[in-house]
Write a structure and sequence with these properties.
single chain; 202 residues; mainly beta; 5-stranded mixed sheet; 20 strands
């Protein structure tokens, strides 16, 4: 209660009182287990807010929720194969008295590169020569080719032509060369294609 005492020229005293209500302070507070990661990236949120009656989460990706529990998770996507995406997560809280507080933090989702290649042929008779054409999408990529023909892995962007052989006494054999690509954020994608090789004719 605030009091104002006024004394007039004639010595008369008047006291005015005003009651002021001060509501309890509230705090919006959350933490994340991992604010950065490759697409799709799942984040677990720990809600440590106090003095709150209602919650409003805005995840910065077009999705919202009223999750009130101490723990919940959300998945963030980045469908670009080259650029990272950033999402600002905001938690707004309201107390039973209408007091408001909010806090924000950022989630960064790294791009996942797109591994892709095609071959000069999908099959033929042994010995079969196959050329490889790398059409992967991404930035700063490293490449590892497993040719599935007994040779050592190749780390070139475009490998040399490979030979696939099947003996005369063998049946149709399927080889599956595989390309693994990695970007600077260590996000990985893998692709493989089958090559059908028929036995060598004597």
């Amino acid at each position: 209660i605030i009091q104002l005492q006024v004394t007039g020229a004639n010595g008369c005293v008047h006291v005015y009182e005003q009651e002021i209500l001060i509501y309890p302070e509230i705090h919006a507070l959350f933490s994340m287990d991992d604010a950065e990661g490759c697409h799709p990236h799942t984040v677990e949120f720990t809600n440590s807010s106090t003095g709150v009656e209602t919650y409003f989460w805005d995840y910065g990706n077009g999705h919202t929720s009223g999750a009130s529990g101490p723990l919940h998770s959300r998945t963030f996507n980045n469908f670009d194969h080259s650029e990272e995406a950033e999402f600002t997560v905001t938690l707004q809280v309201v107390s039973e008295f209408g007091c408001v507080d909010e806090v924000s933090d950022d989630v960064t989702v790294y791009p996942v590169p797109e591994a892709a290649f095609h071959t000069s042929t999908a099959g033929g008779c042994s010995p079969l020569e196959v050329e490889f054409f790398n059409t992967s999408n991404g930035k700063g990529l490293t490449f590892v080719w497993d040719m599935d023909n007994g040779t050592e892995p190749i780390t070139a962007e475009t490998p040399p032509a490979q030979f696939y052989e099947v003996g005369t006494n063998q049946e149709l054999t399927v080889f599956s060369p595989t390309l693994t690509i990695t970007n600077p954020q260590e996000c990985v994608d893998v692709v493989s294609h089958d090559i059908f090789v028929y036995p060598e004719v004597e």
